[in-house]
């Protein structure tokens, strides 16, 4: 870790990952310097297992595994979750050098890094002389070479082409099956979802006829899992503030064959008690997976995070918790999850929820860790990139007491 941090505004924990000094000092209250390095070194890489969730409304895990193995695809069942299958992620690989390059945006580069093709919307710039069929390197915005492949479009056409593959990836730093190009994906037989996110559905534990509100539902992974686990018999309300994301979510849910099994609306759910007063006191369960600093998402080639951002996110997240209290019936359950690491967005928000009157329900998950703050050591769940080789993740479960404390 670099030199005289006391006079620097930012600290580079590992290559490409920087924290402002205030956030760096904050993290040192919970992690040693070597642990911080291990966390962010893991964030730069994908997990060793890439997980999908079998859509058991359409196919059994055994049958899907058989279909995939018939095509010589390496796929394995998870040791604990029956609907979870995983593919081994291979790498790192040495990338052949090409004389021409295509610059991808950050999000696209991180997908190509693990073997995806580069699609036209992810292209920032192409070498002028690139013609269809040329060998090219795909470069991330930080200059890192993430793949070698073949150009599927010429530079002349890139500005007028809106869709399709720009570069067919042949060698990437890490590789795994191109799951979204599988016919089983198109047929809605599975949804690609990380292991910790799949555990959230089981913590929700949906039952037939329960009213369940997903306050931050896009892109639909947890919503679809709740529908699946309830056998399509729960009354599921899914909300997101972005119209584009809601459109995408409807497409995903319909691909999974869940038409008619959910109600979805574009709403900023911080105001759901005002916009939908009919939902006040109606919910058996509320799921909050709010916008967060995403510090557990893998792989991330580079990132900068600040204490101001963490504090702003924590305050933003609390607005959803406050509204969830009003939406839940007495005795109703709140499930809170994030894909980030700072306690301010996790354990501290559970303490805030307790201040509103919520009671924490102890949960434990095989292979996961407990809370980072002593008070929640045995009651909430954390997944760490460097310990569990998953995305960084947090899950908690709370109850609104039967006696109202409003």
From TrEMBL:
- Active site positions, chain numbering: 339
Q: What is its EC number?
A: 2.1.1.-
State the Gene3D superfamilies in the record. Answer: PUA domain, Sun protein, domain 3, Vaccinia Virus protein VP39
Q: A GO molecular-function term, please?
A: tRNA binding
Q: Which reaction does it catalyse?
A: cytidine(72) in tRNA + S-adenosyl-L-methionine = 5-methylcytidine(72) in tRNA + S-adenosyl-L-homocysteine + H(+)
Residues bound to S-adenosyl-L-methionine: 240, 245, 268, 289, 316
Keyword hit for Lyase = no
**Keyword annotations:** Methyltransferase, RNA-binding, S-adenosyl-L-methionine, Transferase
Task: Supply one GO BP term.
Answer: RNA methylation
The SAM-dependent MTase RsmB/NOP-type domain extends over 112-401
What is the top-level taxon of the source organism?
A: Archaea
Keyword field contains S-adenosyl-L-methionine: yes
So what does this one do? S-adenosyl-L-methionine-dependent methyltransferase that specifically methylates the C5 position of cytosine 72 in several tRNAs.
* Family membership: Belongs to the class I-like SAM-binding methyltransferase superfamily. RsmB/NOP family.
What name does the UniProt record give this protein? tRNA (cytosine(72)-C(5))-methyltransferase
**What species does this protein belong to?**
Vulcanisaeta distributa (strain DSM 14429 / JCM 11212 / NBRC 100878 / IC-017)
